[in-house]
Specification:
The protein is an all-alpha fold. It has 15 helices and no strands.
């Protein structure tokens, strides 16, 4: 479809926010029900680890391909298809009763989540460009908000004695409702510029991808290791240790929801630099052997710092001219997702040979290096 025949509509912003919200909600629903699904299928931690790799493999496989599909069929068709697949998958998480069926389901769910993550970011880049406003942080904020709402809703429904199937069905209906509201304003194209359907990252896209890899790795590390660190090193109880993830998640969500206003006022360069330094400093404070509440303050700082780096990088990927948006975004998304998968495992290996505190220091240094690399990425100043 010609862009001249498809002028910008403000409802595109709402539609994009709803897609990000749905992706966060669906991911949180699955993650929150992992203990119940694990008990229902009767698997141990080792098998669960393999099954989580099935999810990751499906997502990583889908991301490069989804960009090519979006170029051919447009964001609207691909997002509708992937969102419907998410809706179909969710209830089956409560029904599967074997390792094989759960593995197949997780691959399919990974394909749907990976496709949605990739193409909704292509849509987000295009909507931001068409609106001539800073919107990317807010879009990613709705993903984080979806994660918090999803996890909270599952917890409340479980306490209220709803079954896993009823919860999954309810969440699937919420995703379907959001899709029905958004579908009319999803973009029927995938790129403002011409380019190949698939290409390896090149030019600034490589650097942007590396920075996203580092930041996603850091986020994954906090989510998977903060509770263990607070329990083992700060002598926190199980309930108190969960406050580390909570503090990080809440401040990152708020930082993204208000990030567009901050970026508009100060410019991407200032926000990017201060954010990276704050995240690195926050993690160092969190692992300092002092006291529990100082550690929580460190996770608060890290949440604030991590909030807007990735959204700014996605905006930069959409504005660079070496690759079309529909080929650059899948490359950046894939590298970022690899970081999410590698983070917890790499921290575990480093901790095995040194200590968990030393491993987290390495992550703090990695964030600082990513911040320095960001100076070579072209972003707006004010």
């Amino acid at each position: 479809m010609s862009l001249k025949n498809c002028p910008f509509n403000k409802r595109e912003v709402l539609a994009t926010r709803l897609l990000f919200l749905c992706a966060g909600l669906a991911t949180a629903t699955w993650a929150s029900l992992i203990p119940i699904i694990k008990a229902h299928v009767g698997i141990d931690e080792s098998t669960l680890g393999f099954l989580l790799l099935c999810l990751g493999a499906g997502a990583i496989f889908a991301m490069p391909i989804s960009g090519a599909l979006a170029i051919k069929y447009g964001c609207k068709r691909i997002l509708q298809a992937s969102a419907i697949l998410i809706v179909v998958c969710l209830p089956f998480f409560a029904l599967v009763n074997s390792v094989v069926s759960l593995a197949v389901l997780l691959v399919i769910f990974g394909l749907s989540i990976g496709t949605t993550d990739c193409v909704m970011n292509i849509q987000a880049v295009l909507v931001e460009e068409r609106s001539k406003m800073s919107l990317m942080s807010g879009f990613h904020g709705f993903y984080s908000l979806g994660g918090i709402v999803g996890a909270g809703a599952v917890a409340v429904l479980l306490i209220a004695a709803f079954s896993a199937f009823e919860i999954c069905l309810a969440m699937a209906l919420v995703v379907l409702l959001c899709l029905l509201i958004a579908r009319g304003d999803l973009l029927p194209f995938a790129s403002q510029t011409e380019g190949p359907a698939f290409a390896l990252p090149k030019g600034p896209v490589v650097l942007i991808g590396v920075i996203c890899f580092a930041m996603f790795l850091a986020e994954g590390t906090v989510l998977d290791w903060s509770g263990i660190y607070l329990m083992d090193y700060q002598n926190a109880s199980t309930g108190m240790a969960a406050l580390g993830i909570f503090s990080f998640s809440i401040t990152m969500t708020l930082g993204r929801l208000f990030g567009d206003r901050i970026i508009t006022h100060f410019g991407q360069r200032v926000v990017l630099t201060i954010s990276g330094l704050t995240a690195s400093l926050g993690l160092l404070i969190a692992i300092a052997p002092m006291n529990f509440y100082l550690a929580l303050f460190g996770y608060v700082l890290m949440g604030i710092g991590c909030a807007n780096v990735v959204p700014i990088m996605f905006s930069a990927a959409g504005k660079q001219t070496y690759m079309s948006q529909a080929t650059a975004i899948p490359a950046v998304t894939t590298l970022g997702y690899v970081g999410v998968l590698m983070g917890p495992a790499s921290v575990g290996q480093i901790a095995h040979f040194t200590s968990l505190a030393a491993a987290l220091v390495v992550i703090a240094i990695l964030i600082a290096i990513a911040t320095m690399l960001s100076f070579f990425v072209k972003v707006t100043r004010v």
